[in-house]
Hints:
Elements: H1 9-21, H2 30-45, E1 50-69, E2 72-75, E3 77-78, E4 90-96, E5 106-108, H3 125-133, E6 138-143, E7 166-170, H4 175-183, E8 186-207, E9 217-222, H5 230-249, E10 256-261, H6 269-276, H7 281-284, E11 287-291, E12 300-306, H8 309-322, E13 328-329, H9 340-345, E14 350-357, H10 367-370, H11 373-389
Parallel strand pairs: 4-5, 5-6, 6-7, 9-10, 9-11, 11-14, 12-13
Antiparallel strand pairs: 1-2, 1-8, 3-7, 4-8, 8-10, 12-14
Helix pairs in contact: 1-5, 1-11, 5-11, 8-11
Amino acid sequence: MDALHGFDPGVIERRIRAYEAFGVHRTGWPGDDQTSAWLRDQLRAAGVTADLERFSYPRVEYRNARISWPGGQADGVPMYDGGFTDFGGITSDLCDDSDPDLFGKIVVATSALQGDKRWTAPEARKHYETLKDQGVLGVVVPSGDPEGRVILRNAEHIGGPFNLPVLQISERDARGLLSAVVLGVEGTIEVDGERLKSNATNVVATIPGTDAGARPLVVMTPKSGWFTCAAERGGGIAIWLGIADALAARPARRTVHFVASAGHELHHLGLADYLAHRGSLPQDALGWLHLGASIGAKFPQARMGASDETLHALATRSLEAAGAGPFEAMPAGESGNGEARNLKAVGARYVTFLGGHRYFHSPQDTFDVACDAESVARWGLGAWSVIEGMQAPD
Length: 394
């Protein structure tokens, strides 16, 4: 079998469809646990010893998450790093976020539909805490993909939540609510839930190199997310497996460590746990390859970055030679909002592929809607070229 068979578009499509078939991939959910077992088995089938490493995390459980008003109701998803209500919720006047007096009201973030990023930014906690200080009782944030389905925000503050209930609903479900806001009626927001200590798994493996004294490499990809995540996570997962297949068939000079991490949508908790238990590996490794979001997706907003000019040049050459792209090359030293920011924080050298796409964080992120296996294959060959380029002597 060709050592690079994992970069064949047919293999990539089968693997992404298999990943998608596990369903919702939120950290610690059945689909995430099934993904861990499947990735371990895929590696073992290639002759690579792989294991699952457990880590603890705050699991959000909610029974009801809805906003209701006279004549209407919309179910949604709470912001996992926001607050909760009691059973039955909070009833008060509805208003939009332009209201000059927000005290004691439920705010509907109508400006979010006009592109105001304060409501969905990774570092949104300060904004919500300010609203809490102003006496706001709850917030409803509408959002929409091209068909009006909800787009969720990652819970960047899961370790220190802000104590304000925030409900995310779809743009199409918000239409009646927006009319109710204009009429100035009362509504009831209910986010009946709690955070429980639970466990999730990372998938880890090591393929020994032929030179035991050479500095190792690390290849990592997140495996969790809000929905089926076919394009968001599928490309990175397929390339991660393709690199492992190639190295198992044709060992390289350097030892290569692999990690597929959960907790992506929860402030990268899985990678944080991996780093915390690897001693000086983050700094000792010659380089990390982060296979981030939306690699090879349809309708992409693709980016590439690297920790330094040498790796930046290697990644640029590799992607251009493979015909990947188009992509934005971030300035050397920038990490973006993916897991490479964790690597930068601990002083690791890295190359990162990441981005978004039209159905990013939407329930419509499926293979048929959002994936392009041929594009993933080109990015995969570029990633393989990066790994080969890192094999040169230190």
